[in-house]
Amino acid sequence: MQNFNTTILSNQELSPGYYRMRILAPGFVAAAKPGQFVMVRVSGGLEPLLRRPFGIFRTGFLPADCDGLPDKEYVEILYKVVGSGTSILKGLHQGDGVELLGPLGNGFELRPAAEQILVGGGIGLVPLYMLARELVKNGNVRLLMGGRCRDDILAVTEFERLGVATYVSTDDGSLGEEGLVTDVLQRKLARYPEAAVYACGPMPMLRAVHELCAAGKVPLQVSLEAFMACGVGACLGCVVKGAGHSETDPHYLCTCKEGPVFMADQLEWDLLEDRQDGCGCGEDEA
Amino acid sequence: MSEGKMNMDKKPNLAVDIAGLHLKNPVMPASGTFGYGQEYAPFFDLDQLGGIVTKGLSLNPKAGNPTPRIAETTSGMLNAIGLQNVGIEAFIRDKLPFLRQYRTPVIANFFGNSLEEYGEVARRLSDLSEVAAVELNISCPNVKKGGIVFGTDPQAAAEVVTLVRRHLSKPLIVKLTPNVTDITVMARAVEEAGADAICCINTLTGMAVDVHRRQLRIANGTGGLSGPAIRPVAVRMVYQVVQAVNVPVIGVGGITCAEDALEFLIVGARAVQVGTANFVDPQAMPKIVTGLEQYCRDQHEDDINNIIGSLKLS
C-alpha cells in the first residue's frame, strides 16, 4: 500500500458513460491482488474533497520505448460517470497527474473448484478480470455478464481472450439474451452444482445471486462498493452489517479494510441497503 | 558568513508545551480520523508527529450508528459514525503495544455514557504509562448520551471535568463543541473545573439531502460537518477561547496545509489537530510539519512559539 503522485497513460471512453483509465503505478504488478481497489484523488484542489474508490481492473507492463528504461507498470480502472468526481476524471488526459492510494482492501480468495462462475453486473465487472486471469490457470471459468442495455456490457472480449466462456444478458435484449443475469446463473448452477461463484454488481443483483447460491449451497464471494472517506479503515464510514447484526447486538464490517470482498455468509443480507448503485466508484448519482 | 545566513541555516524550533506535555511540533491528528495510528503507519513515520490522538474510547466496545454514515458536502464531509470503538480493554490489549514503539506522546480521547463511566474510563487511562495525556470528549454531536449533552451545558461540563480530574493524574485536555451560542462560556466552565488545556472545535451539526431520492444522506439524520468548509468558524472560536481562558488551546477544524495551521497558531492556538485532511491525503500531517518549518525560515523566526498569538490587530 502506497500513496503517490502519478501520471495518466490513457483515458478512453469504452461505451457511452463508461471509461477506462490506465495510470502509471510502479510496484502494482506484484502488489495488487484480484479484488483490491485504489483511491484516486481526481483534483489537486479541495473540490471534490474526498478521494474516490475504484476497483482494480487489471495491472500490467507497458513495454519500454527504445530509451533503455525498464518496462513501466500500470494499473487500469474502469468507471462509470455518475457524480462530480467521475465527471472530472473523464476530462483528464494522457500526461495529466492524479494522486493514487493503493492497492487497498482484501481481495478474492481463490477457491479450488472444477467450475468457477463469475457474475458481473455493469461496472461490477471490474474486479473480476484479474480474478479470471488467475482462475483460468486451474479450471473452467465462466463469466455471466449482465446490464440494462448493450452500453452496460464492458470488456467481455478481454475475458474471452483469457479463455473464459462468456454469457451476456441485458434487460432490454439489446445484447445477448434478454433477461436478468441471475436467470443465466440459475441455469448454470443447475448444471454445475459444484461451482464456486464470485460476484460484483448492484445490491439487488448481489442479493439475488446470494439467494441462488445459498439455496444450492454454493460458496459465494461478493465484492461490495461503498462511499468511503479514507479507504484504510480509519474513518469507519463505509461499514456494512455483518452476519448476526441486530439492533441490540450490532455487528459492522469495514468495507475498505475487511472487504471489499466478503464471503456471502459474513454479511447480514436482510439488512444490507439497496442504495448501492453499482457505479464502481462509491459516488452517489448527482 | 553573515549572521542572517547563519540563522537561516539553523533548524527552527517547532517544539511546544501543552500543560506540561512536551510536543516536538504542534501537529497531531484529530481523534477519530487516525484510527489507533496503525492505519497510517504505512504512509509515514508516526514519530514525525507532535502527538498521536487516538480514536475516542469508551468503557465497553461501541458499535456505532447505522449506515450511511458519511456524505460529502461542499469542501467538507458530514459524518455520524457514532463513536464506534473497540473499548478500553481491547485498546490496552491490541492497540497500545503498537503505539509503544513510538517516542511521540499518545493522547487518548475518551467519552462515557454516563458521569460514572467518564470517571471509570479516566481512572483506567490514568494508570497507563503509555498514555501521556487524555482528551475528554464532551462534544460528539452524533450520540445522545456521552457527548454533546455534557458539552452544551456549562454546569454539566464542569461536573464531568471535575469528576474526571479527580480520577486522573495526567494532563487533561477538554474538547469543546461549536454547537453552542457562546463557546467562551463553556471554555471558562471547563477551565475552572480543572481542564489543563482546551481543544476546539469538534464538528458542526449539519444535514444534507439527496434530492434524487428525497432522503437524508446520513442515516442518523444529522451529522458532524468537518473539512475546509468549517475552518473560518473554527479560527473564530479558537480566537475567542484564547482570549477567554488562561490554559493552552489546541485549534482544530478544516486544516489541510501549513498555511491553514498557521491561521490557528497566529490567533493563539498552541497546537493544532488535523482531521478530515488525513482522509484526503494520508501524508497531510508530515507535509504540514515541513510547511511550518519552512514558514519559520521564510519569516526568519527561529521558534514557532514566536508565531503563536502573533496576530496583529492594527
UniProtKB/TrEMBL annotation, chain A:
SUPFAM superfamilies in the record: Ferredoxin reductase-like, C-terminal NADP-linked domain, Riboflavin synthase domain-like
Cofactor binding comment, as recorded: Binds 1 [2Fe-2S] cluster per subunit. Binds 1 FAD per subunit.
Q: Which residues form the FAD-binding FR-type domain?
A: 1-110
In the record, biological process GO terms are: 'de novo' UMP biosynthetic process
Q: Which residues bind [2Fe-2S] cluster?
A: C230, C235, C238, C256
Q: Does the keyword tRNA-binding apply?
A: no
Question: Which pathway, per its entry?
Answer: Pyrimidine metabolism; UMP biosynthesis via de novo pathway; orotate from (S)-dihydroorotate (NAD(+) route): step 1/1
Cofactor(s) for this UniProt protein:
[2Fe-2S] cluster; FAD
Alphabetical list of Pfam families matching this protein:
DHODB_Fe-S_bind, NAD_binding_1
- InterPro entries referenced in this protein's UniProt entry, alphabetically: Cyt_c3_hydrogenase_gsu (IPR012165), Dihydroorotate_DH_ele_sf (IPR037117), Dihydroorotate_DH_Fe-S-bd (IPR019480), Dihydroorotate_DHASE_ETsu (IPR023455), FAD-bd_FR_type (IPR017927), FNR_nucleotide-bd (IPR039261), OxRdtase_FAD/NAD-bd (IPR001433), PyrK_electron_transfer (IPR050353)
Give the record's keywords alphabetically: 2Fe-2S, Electron transport, FAD, Flavoprotein, Iron, Iron-sulfur, Metal-binding, Pyrimidine biosynthesis, Transport
**Which CDD domains does this chain map to?**
DHOD_e_trans
Output the Gene Ontology terms for molecular function: 2 iron, 2 sulfur cluster binding; electron transfer activity; flavin adenine dinucleotide binding; metal ion binding; oxidoreductase activity
Family per UniProt? Belongs to the PyrK family.
Which PANTHER family does UniProt cross-reference here? DIHYDROOROTATE DEHYDROGENASE B (NAD(+)), ELECTRON TRANSFER SUBUNIT, DIHYDROOROTATE DEHYDROGENASE B (NAD(+)), ELECTRON TRANSFER SUBUNIT-RELATED
**Oligomeric and partner information:** Heterotetramer of 2 PyrK and 2 PyrD type B subunits.
This protein is called what?
A: Dihydroorotate dehydrogenase B (NAD(+)), electron transfer subunit
Q: Which organism is it from?
A: Syntrophotalea carbinolica (strain DSM 2380 / NBRC 103641 / GraBd1) (Pelobacter carbinolicus)
TrEMBL record, chain B:
Q: How does it assemble?
A: Heterotetramer of 2 PyrK and 2 PyrD type B subunits.
What is the organism lineage in this UniProt record?
Bacteria, Pseudomonadati, Thermodesulfobacteriota, Desulfuromonadia, Desulfuromonadales
Q: What EC class is this?
A: oxidoreductase
Q: Where does substrate bind?
A: K55, N79, A80, I81, G82, L83, N137, N202, T203
Q: Which cofactor does it need?
A: FMN
> For this UniProt entry, which segments traverse the membrane?
none
Q: According to the record, how does the cofactor bind?
A: Binds 1 FMN per subunit.
Which PANTHER family does the entry link to?
DIHYDROOROTATE DEHYDROGENASE (FUMARATE) (PTHR48109:SF1), DIHYDROOROTATE DEHYDROGENASE (QUINONE), MITOCHONDRIAL-RELATED (PTHR48109)
The protein's Enzyme Commission number? 1.3.-.-
Compartment list: Cytoplasm
Keyword Hydrolase attached: no
**Recorded GO terms, molecular function?**
dihydroorotate dehydrogenase activity
According to its UniProt entry, the function of this protein is described as: Catalyzes the conversion of dihydroorotate to orotate.
Give the record's pathway. Pyrimidine metabolism; UMP biosynthesis via de novo pathway
Choose any GO biological process term that the UniProt entry carries and state it: 'de novo' UMP biosynthetic process
User: SUPFAM superfamilies this protein is in?
Assistant: FMN-linked oxidoreductases (SSF51395)
> What family does the Swiss-Prot or TrEMBL record give for this protein?
Belongs to the dihydroorotate dehydrogenase family. Type 1 subfamily.
Q: State a single Pfam family of this protein.
A: DHO_dh
Which keywords has UniProt assigned to this entry? Cytoplasm, Flavoprotein, FMN, NAD, Oxidoreductase, Pyrimidine biosynthesis
Organism name: Syntrophotalea carbinolica (strain DSM 2380 / NBRC 103641 / GraBd1) (Pelobacter carbinolicus)
- Write out the catalysed reaction: (S)-dihydroorotate + A = orotate + AH2
Q: What residues form the catalytic site here?
A: C140 (nucleophile)
* Protein name (database record): Dihydroorotate dehydrogenase
One GO cellular component this record assigns the protein to is:
cytoplasm
The entry's FMN-binding residues are S31, K55, G56, N109, N137, K175, I201, G227, G253, G254, G275, T276
Location of the Dihydroorotate dehydrogenase catalytic domain: 14-294
Q: Which gene encodes it?
A: pyrD
Family matches, as InterPro entries: Aldolase_TIM (IPR013785), DHO_dehydrogenase (IPR050074), DHOD_1B (IPR033888), Dihydroorotate_DH_1 (IPR024920), Dihydroorotate_DH_1_2 (IPR012135), Dihydroorotate_DH_cat (IPR005720), Dihydroorotate_DH_CS (IPR001295), Dihydroorotate_DH_I (IPR049622)
Q: Does the keyword Protease apply?
A: no
